[in-house]
């Protein structure tokens, strides 16, 4: 088994053990260890299946020449280059959701909120594990003699098998973003409204990944479109709409919907920035383009924080 798969396995065992320990000692949730055990089982099962099936569907790997058995055999050919990290993360979240539903009665939101920082930690470990998988977690190659040609800034890759070159360690950047959010989720969002930690984690884990997917050299593409970058944008819009639709009903229309407007405007600017990065419009260097992208993402993040805070202040239905 490869070092990357060992990282995923050991990281999963560690994170779900911490999740069970936190549920047992840091919350009032019933059956914490049953919840953690079922969460591990279902998260691994759903994550592996959806990562492979999602990739096959999104990349249209299955065509009419595959019958039922042939298609199943093809899907069982699990290779790390032919899975979707995003779809795997969706599967893991669904697995934890199902575990919380089966382990006890009542709302699943407290258990999902408790899992949010540990889900972010698991994301960080999985991203960091990409350092063991060659160019999978790498970005553009560095020029010969670059002062950044060492870990953690760069990874060694072998583009033609004859000599070693270095490329930006995008996976490390993704891991740092996820680790930073894990800290925010654990230390700053405990005790907030049920569901806030979960939805905020979905939003603020997807947000920086828009940048990281643009930096990543390998990955899933539809022509020149980064598929997982697009899926992250869908998550951002869905969570933003959830926050806005459930809060601020007494506000004037422009103020209530301003966060959504900022997100849509930012998305349009990001599309333009991607065209500029690909050299299709304007004549702007890539570092400047990525700087512009960072500013846009900060603006979207600020709009998301505003919408989340507004929803957190809303009174829970049925309570004074």
Characterization of the model:
By secondary structure, this protein is mainly α. Helix content is 66%, strand content 4%. The chain contains ten helices and four strands; from the N terminus they run H-H-H-H-H-E-E-H-H-E-E-H-H-H. It has helices spanning 3-26, 32-58, 68-75, 85-103, 109-129, 170-188, 196-215, 227-245, 253-277, 286-313; strands spanning 154-157, 165-168, 221-222, 225-226. It has a two-stranded antiparallel ribbon with strand order 1-2. The model has no long low-confidence stretch (mean pLDDT 88).
Outline type: globular
Give the low-pLDDT segments.
none
- Give me the strand/helix succession: HHHHHEEHHEEHHH
> Could you tell me the number of beta strands?
4
Give the overall average pLDDT: 88
Query: How far apart, in Å, are the first and last alpha carbons?
Result: 56 Å
Number of helices: 10
Computed over alpha carbons, the radius of gyration is 21 Å
Strand order of the largest sheet: 1-2
- Biggest sheet character: 2 strands, antiparallel
